[in-house]
């Protein structure tokens, strides 16, 4: 929460929920990553928040970009960044999209199987590829599934196949889980990566890069370590497992870059009970899972919520969105404590919402418009 955001909201006269994102916070986050990890290139994960103002700021600061689609590639190019600063980091790509990325100048692609390697060899000959490894997401508030990555035992074969097809077997990547609050979780993945580096070197294939992925957290209800703590832990692990042969490294912060830069203002639509004897109230907001708060799924991300009544006595509440869908409930398993004095029509501020909110609210489900966004 910044004074600039509060001032903007005080002067706002429109109705409906909105996200307000402060570019000064994004700038400071980028500089924090750069200072803490000066030998590592930053590839901002565009999917976290692709607002043109964010992309233009980061492009001007010298950031590179991790993209998941041709549209994101085009958005980055429109921001002023050159194609050599773009990674096509999605391991699931149509061959025609690989070709389009190649035509736009992209030469760095992620893979996790031989079939994907073959598509890139046909559509983007001579490009550099890195193989994504399956990784344990223990300790992350938003653990990743087995959708992306391959077993480490497969990776040498995948990269050797790329080498034989004329591609540059460039490196490895992994992701330790989004909102990872344990800086030590990179150690095991780096140990595995170093083993694969040595294995392929014995076959005459010299890898050059380790993509450390994302996972760098933003603060919600729980404190998180500073970027410096992650940098120190990762550096120790790199020296432990690679010795003096430290590879090129890149990171892909998304949430850690923009999460704490944004605040959503929402309104209380209804406060009710389901039975007279209930001790828990239901508080319905004009924003829910389908309007930008999809990461409350399974109550993994618990956003800080501020009200004008903070400091009053509180009571347990179920928090839900406005849509006519029964899954549009944000917090029920573990009730959220809100002020007893909260009223229908009250405004609430949902903090830490700069990442993965506008992108999850791109369709007007139930006729509710996509989440408005203001970048200041």
TrEMBL record:
InterPro entries listed in its UniProt record: Ala_racemase/Decarboxylase_C, De-COase2_N, De-COase2_pyr-phos_BS, Orn/DAP/Arg_de-COase, Orn_de-COase, PLP-binding_barrel
GO biological process: putrescine biosynthetic process from arginine, via ornithine
UniProt keyword Lyase present: yes
Residues forming the catalytic site: 324 (proton donor)
EC number, UniProt record: 4.1.1.17
GO CC terms of this entry: cytoplasm
Cofactor dependence: pyridoxal 5'-phosphate
Keywords, sorted A to Z: Lyase, Pyridoxal phosphate
Pfam families the record matches: Orn_Arg_deC_N
Pathway membership: Amine and polyamine biosynthesis; putrescine biosynthesis via L-ornithine pathway; putrescine from L-ornithine: step 1/1
N6-(pyridoxal phosphate)lysine modifications at: 47
GO molecular-function term, one example from the UniProt record: ornithine decarboxylase activity
Reactions it catalyzes: L-ornithine + H(+) = putrescine + CO2
Enzyme class: lyase
Span of domain Orn/DAP/Arg decarboxylase 2 N-terminal: 25-258
Keyword NADP included in the entry's annotation: no
Protein family (similarity comment): Belongs to the Orn/Lys/Arg decarboxylase class-II family.
Name the UniProt record assigns to this protein: ornithine decarboxylase
Organism, as annotated: Methylocapsa palsarum
